[in-house]
Every structure is written in C-alpha cells, then in structure tokens.
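An instance as discussed:

___
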Amino acid sequence: MAEHDFIPPEMRRQVIERDAGCCRVCGQFVPQPGLHHIDYRSQGGLHVRENLVTIGWLPGHDCHLPVVHANKRLWQPVLRQVAITDGVNARQLLRWYENRKLMP
C-alpha cells in the first residue's frame, strides 16, 4: 500500500473528534475507531472530513463490512449526509428518511 493511501494523522484526529469517538452508523462509542471513506479510495475518494466517518470495525461491533459494505447503494448517500450533519447517526437518519418516504 502506498504511503498516500494512509489517512494523515491530523485528519484522522479531526474526524474522530468531530464524531466524538462514536460510530456514525449506529452511534455506539468505539474504543478503537476505524475510519471509513464514503466515496471509496479506489473510486477517487479523498482523505477529507466530508468523505470520512468514524466506524466500528471490530468483532462485537462491526458496522463496516456487514452493514456499510453490504449495501453501498443504501448507505453511501446516508453517510454523505451524516458526515456534514452533527448529532445524528446513519441509522437515525435512515429511519427519518423511511418515515417520510424520502429514501436517498
């Protein structure tokens, strides 16, 4: 993996701080947070705040592969909104969309 593929430490700190150390999918505190690119690096996604969210990735709290990667079409637009909206997680926002029949 090339050096430019790693999220710069300062950007990592900023995103985790913005997200208060909580998974932006479910809202649960993450003791060892991972970061998820909303637009994947392989598709030109950048290491910027608007494209990164804190996410749980360890067994027992894994919102990364079995949730987000399981249905990119559903989660990607929701996570885009979550990344720019304080105080809401993706599951809350998805329920809000569903209740109002406003699916992204």
Observations:
- The first strand starts at residue 34 and ends at 37.
- The longest helix spans residues 72-83.
- DSSP finds four helices and four strands in the chain.
